[in-house]
Each structure stands twice: as structure tokens, then as C-alpha cells.
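Record type: monomer structure entry
Structure origin: computed from sequence
Chain ID: A
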Amino acid sequence: MREGIKNAIAFVAAPAWKDYILDITGSLTNGTTDADIDQYVLDNSGTNFHLCGTAAMTSSKARYGVVNPDLRVKGVNGLRVVDASVFVSALLFALT
């Protein structure tokens, strides 16, 4: 996150943005050190909605759920979900 913020600051400092972006605002106004940026990240970061487990895995025969145990999306040919959206669902399915 720190490096991303540094890159964003460098990006908007480019001459092309001169008349569009006047200055940095908020708690990063005087934040020039890594510690300042780290504190900004801690103060302004969070999560929204579900961290993982949003694509329910159910048996191939079930009429509900998003993916089957092979991670194939139900009702769609040639598409699999292979990301954190099925982590929790996969673990729960394996335990049952």
C-alpha cells in the first residue's frame, strides 16, 4: 500500500495534472515519510462486504449454489471460479 500511495503521489505530480490537481489534502498533506504513509494506510483502510466465500460450492446435483466441487460454474460451459470467493465454501463442503 505504501508503494502504491507513493506511486500515486508521483503520478499526480506530473506536469499534465498541473491545473487539475491543486494539492494533496487530508492527513497526507504533510505526510512525507514511510511512517506517515503507513499511518495513513492504517487509518483509511478497511474491507467491504465478504472477504471470501461468496460463491457457494454445492454438489453437482444441487439446484442451488454457484459452483460444483470441480469449481465449474453451474449453468455455464467452460467457466470455473478459481479464487477466494470459494475458499470458505470449499472447506465447508469438504468437511460435510
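Annotation 1: The mean pLDDT is 82.
Annotation 2: The first helix runs from residue 2 to 12.
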